[in-house]
Amino acid sequence: MTRVSSPLPAEILTVSALARSVRDLLEHRFPLLWVAGEISNFMRARSGHLYFSLKDETAQVRCVMFRNRCQYLDWEPRDGLRVEVRALVTLYEARGDFQLNAETMRRAGAGALFEAFLRLRDKLDKEGLFDAAHKKALPVSPRCIGIVTSLQAAALRDVLTTLARRNPSIPVIIYPAQVQGEGAARQLEAAIAAAAKRDECDVLILCRGGGSIEDLWAFNDEGLARAIYACPIPVVTGIGHETDFTIAEFVADWRAPTPTAAAELAAPARAELIAVLRQLGQSLQRQMRFALEARAQRLDTMTGRLQSPAERLDASSARVAAARTRLTAAFAHCRRNAERRLEHSARRLATAMPNLGMLQQRVAQLEISLKRATPQRLGAVAEDLARLTLALAHLNPAAVLERGYAIARRADGSVVRSSAGLHAGEALELSFARGGATVSVEKPH
Question: Which of 183, 182, 186, 178 is nearest to 150 (CA)?
């Protein structure tokens, strides 16, 4: 029976491995790119992530924008808006769905302006114009409030109405400027510079009503931003609606969501100030009462301790007399102690003093003994020296040589004491009492 062998099976992938391979392929094949379309099926999850579809006339794709990305949106996406999304093409492995991970999103038609807005925002942010450390505090009770806006702006009426309602006693100065169109940014910049130079108000409100990004573009000007940053007067902005953000609002010391809210920030309510003043007055009265009562109690204490001059003089005289008595007794006690110590020291000195007569007699006796012993001792020393000199003469090698003897030395300087170590032909040095000679051994015995 003939068997037909089947080919080895190809590698079998799991669904997860296949989805992961497709995702890696998509992410490497397509870098970050811009995709334009219309939002549909928009949903904001409780986690803060945005889920929606992006569609055109013939196709659609699922999209997700995670919370750490959508927090930078200064507008609210909704169904039906045409947008441009910068996204990463990927695959959601859990469902096998092709989707876009959105990094940023802008409204279509305002793309170029929005890009310019982001570039300027990042530039000024790096320079530190948005740092909280440079923000100035609002005055608690402003003497005067300035408003920079157009005289025809509806926002001006809202601001004036709010200021009159909250605190009609605060003067208001309007620095008119165009808030939209060509040249508006320069007029706004000049108005802020004029307000700073004239120094008439304690707080400055920069405001206008809502509008598109084109309508609000004058407030995204770099020159205006730097003028706000350099203004020594605290600046409060109320531009457009709460969802609108401009560069001017980032630089300003305080941002309000609307012009009306800006007026409420700048002007404290008179009723609130009156209530605060009433509380401060009551607190001041309590503090004054407590201070007066404490001082009255202290006065009573000091009065009880106060004495007449005569009483104080008598008391001082008594203290002086007592001190004199103690001083006299102490002096007498010290004198007695000193006399006792002196007497004791005199007795010890008398006991320790030597007998000079006996010492002198002893010295004379020792002197006589020394004179007698010196010649005897010198004679004995001379005899010993002569004896030692004679012994030394007997032991002197030179004396032996004088009697006809010689000293034989080898070439290394060693003395020859026996003929046993000599060799024929060996050279020896002979030393005599006077002079020497070199000899050669012919035959040792």
Answer: 178
User: Please, are residues 154 and 249 in contact by the beta-carbon 8 Å criterion?
Assistant: no
Cβ distance 251 to 219 under 8 Å? no
Give CA 435 to chain center in angstroms. 96
pLDDT band of residue 110 (cuts 50, 70, 90) is low
Find the Cα–Cα–Cα–Cα dihedral 344, 350, 352, 355, rounded to 10°: 180
CA distance 84 to 76: 14
pLDDT digits (tens, 9 = 90+) for 275-296: 778 888 888 888 888 888 788 7
The pTM (predicted TM-score) of the whole model is 0.44
What domains are there in the chain, each with its CATH number?
Answer: 15-108 (2.40.50.140), 141-268 (3.40.50.2300), 401-440 (no CATH)
Structure tokens at 67: 């919370």
Instruction: Give just the sign of the alpha carbon dihedral 333, 335, 339, 342.
Output: positive
pLDDT given for residue 308 in this prediction: 67
The two three-digit tokens of residue 129, written as one number: 């114009």
CA distance 407 to 343: 87
Q: Which helix (H) or strand (E) holds 53?
A: strand 50-55
Task: Please check whether residue 83 is in contact with residue 77, taking contact to mean a CB–CB distance below 8 angstroms.
Answer: yes
Residues 198, 178: Cα–Cα separation, whole Å: 20
Q: Which residues contact 61 (CB under 8 A, 6 or more apart)?
A: 35, 37, 53, 54, 55, 98, 99, 100
Q: For tokens 């004199």, what's the residue? A: 324
* Continuous H helices in 356-415: 356-395, 397-402
The pLDDT value given to residue 61: 92
With bands split at pLDDT 50, 70 and 90, how would you rate the model's confidence at 5?
very low
DSSP 93: T
pLDDT of residue 109: 60
